[in-house]
Structures are given as structure tokens and as C-alpha cells.
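As a warm-up, study this chain.
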Amino acid sequence: MNAAKATWLENFRFAGIADSGHPIVVDGDKKAGNSPMELVLIGLCGCTGYDVTSILVKKREPFTSLEVRAEAQRAKDPPSVYTEIKLIYRVGGSVSHKAVEDAVRLSKEKYCSVSAMLQKTAKITVEIEYV
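Now compare it with the structure written out below.
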């Protein structure tokens, strides 16, 4: 079982902590921390980034950098869930394009649990940029 908690600090600001013990500030007003929905996108980028990195390392691909960016649209009416998410992967190094494409596909279709949850409400598309 996993656990997390958020303790109210002031205004719309909370101190968040989970099993790993790393504290974060969550702020619904976005004045002193990321909003909950921003954290969902950060979680998605981190999840798929972890997968892609792990796969490329296992394939011994000589990548030198990886940045995953999410651009998202939310529903107009509450609950304002994400309805569309575009993931942009910027990969540096002399990597095989096929290896990167395979890693991104495997993350989306098999490994990334955050992506699997978000796909229930959002259409997730991908774009790969090589630098």
C-alpha cells in the first residue's frame, strides 16, 4: 500500500509528503508551489521519462539528454479533468530513432502507470524531437 498526506498551512497552501519522505508544497493558488493538476502533469512527465531512460540504458543507446514536456487541455466544466495531453520528448545524443520511438511506445502502452490512469479521460499524443 502507498500513502500520502497534505497538511494545510495557510490560504490554499498545503505541505505534502508521501512514503518516500520528500516534502513538497502544493498551492491551489500557484503562489508558493505547484497546483495539484500541475503535479499530475509533472508526475506524468517523470513517469514516462523514467521508463524511456530505463529502456534506452538497457539498449545501450548513447543519449546525452532527455526532457519530457506536457502540453494539456482541461475540460471547461468541473471536474476539469485533462482531456488532451501532448507529450514532447527532446532527446539528445547519437541515438537510434527507432530505439527512442520503441521506448516511448512501450512507456505509453505498457509501463507508465500515470499515463494508464490519465488515458481514461485524456487523449495522449506524443512528439519526439532530436537535438
